[in-house]
Amino acid sequence: MSTNDIVRAFEGIGARAVVRRTLLARQASPWRYTRRSIITHEMWNEELPTALNIGRDAKGQFYDLRVRSRTELRVTDARGRHLLLMSIDGATGERAKYLCGHDEREWFIAGVPDVRGVSGVASAMEALKPREVRVEQESAHVPASERGERRTAVYLRQGEWFFLPRPQVQFPLWLVLSDEPLRRGNGKPHMASFAVRRGGVLVYVSRRYPNGLTEEERSALLREQPALARERWLPMRRDPEVYVRGYVTHPDHERLHLRVWHLVLMNEEHRAPGAMRNVAFLD
Predict the structure, then answer these.
(1) Are 152 and 137 in contact (CB under 8 A)?
(2) Left, alpha or beta for 137 (phi > 0: left; psi -120 to 50: alpha)?
(3) Strand residues in 37-175 grouped as ranges (E)
C-alpha cells in the first residue's frame, strides 16, 4: 500500500498517522519501551525493518510509523476504531502484524502473535488473549459479539491485563501485599489495592535491565562489567502467579473494583514474532 493509503486507513478509524521511509540506522539514544511503542528488533541492530510509536504534538496523539525503504506496510482489516497493520520485510520476507486502535482513553499498538492464524481485527483480539481466557470463554459459551468487550461473564480487562474471578480462593493475611504494581518493562504500572504472588523465577532488575536478569545472568554480567555492581538491583519475580482484589487503577484506564480474588494474566503480545522481544511480566 502507498503511504497515502496507510494514512487514509488510519484516518478511517479516527487517528492520524505519519509514515517515514528511512534506513533506520543505529540510533545513539534508543527509544525506551512504553505501552504505546513497539520496536521490532533490538535497537542496537544496524538496521530496523519497522519502528512504531505513538507520538504527541500540538494536535494530540498520532501514529509515528518509521519503515525501512524495503519494508512494505499493509492494512488488512479495519473495524470501528481498530485496524490490523502488517509489515513485510523486503530483505527477509518476515511478516509481523500489529493491532492498532483506541482503548478507553488512549491509542495503542500491540504486536500480534500467531501471525498465520490472524486475518482481521477480531482474530487479532482473540490471538492476544491468554490461553486460559480463551478456554474459559469457550466453556462459558461467551457470544462472539461480546468477546471484544472489556467486561464479560468470564473476565475483566484493563489494558493488557486480564482478570479472571476466583471466588473460591483465599489467602492468609501474611501473604497479602498492599498497593502493589502490575508492571511490564518501563511502562506505567497498574496499581492493585491487594495482591498475592506465588512462584515465578527470581530475577534482578535495574534501570538498564528493566526486564530483569537471573542470578546466573547477573553474575556473568558483573564479571565482565564490574562497574555495574554499583547499579541499584531490585529482586523481583518473573512470571509469577498473581492474584489481586480491591481496586485496580491506571491513569489511562477506568478503575476496576474486584470484590473477590482474581487471577491476573497478561496478554500474549510478548509472544509476537518480530515484536515485543524484550518485554517480560515482572512483579
Answers:
(1) yes
(2) alpha
(3) 37-39, 50-57, 60-68, 71-79, 82-89, 95-103, 106-112, 156-158, 161-165
Tell me the pLDDT tens digit for each residue of 179-227: 999 877 667 889 999 999 988 888 998 888 877 899 999 999 999 999 9
The reported pTM is 0.77
Kindly tell me the sign of the dihedral angle through the C-alpha atoms of 113, 118, 120, 124: negative
Number of domains in the chain: 1
Question: Can you give the residue range of the structural domain that contains 91?
Answer: 3-128
Tell me whether residue 229 is in a domain: no
Q: Cell 519501551 maps to which residue? A: 33
Q: Which residues contact 232 (CB under 8 A, 6 or more apart)?
A: 206, 207
Is 84 domain-assigned?
A: yes
For residue 123, being part of any structural domain is answered with yes
* Residue 97: inside a domain: yes
Of 37, 171, 23, 199, nearest in space to 109 by CA? 37
Please state, in angstroms and rounded to a whole number, the distance separating the CA atoms of residues 99 and 124: 7
Give CA–CA dist 18/4, Å, rounded. Answer: 10
